[in-house]
Design goal:
The complex is a heterodimer of chains A (274) and B (200). With 274 residues, chain A is an all-alpha fold. Chain A has eleven helices and no strands. In chain B, helix 2 packs parallel to helix 4. Classes of the chains: A mainly alpha (274), B alpha/beta (200). Chain B: GO terms for molecular function: ATP binding; ATP hydrolysis activity.
Chain lengths: 274, 200
């Protein structure tokens, strides 16, 4: 058998990661509500074959609850980072194409948003919008676009100074035509990679805000909720409620981060042919 | 009917000396002018000024006694020295010709562009092959003057001759004005009806 080259390996690895993420997400969706309602007879069991992650104080199976929580996290991460990335592209293009004062204003807003710690800003926005999924999504979306917007602004500025853009203008093409035909195709990789690298941030913020009690309601099976519940039982030696769900969250985040890295390698013309 | 630069001054930065000082050039329609100078004498700058890519600090660029149009198809088209920079690296070459409405059989034949090249990306062709696309693109309908900024420097002698033959034929047919910026004195003598030397 011919040995696989680097690119094929990366492509296969990326596909496997993608399938794994989709599987986690699908499992969480498919698990019924009944499966995560527990009985007090099973309460506080340490990890065993029947309950791989053990059970919590109410007798709910933690493995299923963690999976369901992860699917909520992935939804939040995906939607929030998608909104963020779209905002980033629009703002970045506006800053690079607009007049001087538009650019200055947008840069000032970016500096402003970046100067406030994310967590505090998300808590404020989420709280103001009545907590829950909506508040959390808006909070995360409104705070994460800045660095990508800056990146895209720089990219557009650099593209606009290219000879082929100047030539296109002399060939009688309008700014809109140049934007859609010359500039936007160059931004597609930036957009997707930015989106995926934002994803773990969004998930971790979701967990931390829910942990602090400003995010999802307590009956929803989210990782942050599980972790904050576990605080009450840690001192009685029930380590598994905190450690195992927490560890899975870290694993998922690492998986997505690696996925983003690999995707960048595939899309980036400078490393695509390695 | 002429393209002319009237007493233009230009420098890239206020702190720097003038690159072009009180420079005047005039090209009639149908005339072929060669601009000749050693490196660093502002040949490319003059080419970019004449095509409207740069604005002179003082003086005017006039086409038929009027300033160059800011929008729409520019009647003065510039062909750059480095074709690989003047073509979008993410476009198949078909789109480069489509962009100026030059994707026609007769254009392809005239410039010796092979059909197989049209579906390739710019990095898959050589500089000389790419330059044919740039020249074909610039000779769009609506162009009355073309400025060639050392367009044949990277080509072998046979390709140079081919490209220049096409340019001269097309320009002659449409009575276009040509400004050729070049290092090569023999080329200048061969193609131009008049030569000016910026270093004098």
């Amino acid at each position: 058998m011919k040995s696989l080259n680097h690119r094929t390996k990366v492509v296969i690895l990326t596909a496997v990661m993608f399938v794994l993420l989709v599987a986690v997400y699908a499992c969480g969706i498919l698990i019924s509500e009944e499966a995560v309602t527990g009985s007090f007879l099973n309460a506080k069991r340490p990890p065993c074959l029947e309950h791989p992650f053990g059970t919590d104080a109410l007798g709910r199976d933690l493995f299923l609850r963690t999976l369901k929580g992860l699917s909520v996290s992935i939804t939040v991460g995906l939607v929030a980072s998608l909104i963020s990335a779209v905002i980033a592209v629009l703002v970045g293009i506006a800053a690079a194409n607009g007049s001087k004062w538009v650019d200055a204003l947008i840069n000032w807003i970016i500096d402003l948003v970046m100067s406030v710690p994310h967590t505090i800003l998300i808590i404020l926005i989420s709280f103001a919008l009545g907590r829950g999924l909506k508040g959390l999504l808006m909070g995360i979306a409104a705070t994460h676009w800045c660095s990508l917007a800056r990146l895209i602004r720089g990219e557009v500025l650099q593209l606009r100074s290219q000879q082929y853009v100047a030539v296109s203008r002399k060939l009688g093409k309008s700014s809109g035509w140049i934007l859609t035909n010359h500039l936007l195709p160059h931004l597609v990789p930036q957009f997707f990679v930015g989106l995926i690298l934002m994803f773990p941030h969004a998930i971790l913020h979701e967990a931390s805000i829910s942990f602090l009690g400003f995010g999802l309601p307590p009956e929803q099976p989210a990782i942050g909720i599980i972790l904050s519940e576990s605080m009450r039982y840690l001192s009685t030696g029930m380590w598994w409620i905190a450690v195992l769900p927490g560890l899975t969250l870290v694993l998922i985040v690492l998986l997505i981060d690696k996925f983003g890295d690999h995707l960048r390698m595939i899309l980036d013309p400078y490393s695509a042919q390695e | 009917m002429a393209l002319e630069a009237k007493n233009i001054y230009f420098r890239y930065d206020r702190k720097q000396p003038w690159i072009l000082e009180d420079c005047s050039v005039r090209v009639e329609k149908g005339e072929r002018l060669a601009i000749f100078a050693p490196s660093g004498y502002g040949k490319t700058t003059l080419a970019m000024l004449l095509a409207g890519y740069l604005e002179p600090a003082k003086g005017q660029i006039l086409l038929d006694e009027k300033p160059l149009p800011k929008r729409g198809i520019c009647p003065v088209q510039l062909i750059y020295q480095h074709p690989e920079k003047a073509i979008n690296p993410r476009w198949r070459l078909k789109r480069v010709l489509e962009e100026s409405g030059q994707l026609r059989e007769d254009v392809l034949d005239a410039f010796g562009i092979e059909r197989a090249w049209l579906d390739r990306f710019p990095r898959e062709l050589s500089g000389g092959e790419l330059q044919r696309f740039c020249v074909a693109r610039a000779l769009m309908s609506g162009a009355e003057y073309i400025i060639c900024d050392e367009i044949s420097t990277m080509m072998d002698v046979i390709t140079q001759a081919q490209i220049w033959n096409v340019v001269l034929k097309e320009a002659g047919k449409r009575n276009m004005g040509i400004i050729a910026v070049t290092h090569n004195k023999h080329l200048a003598e061969r193609i131009a009806t008049r030569t000016i030397d910026l270093s004098i």
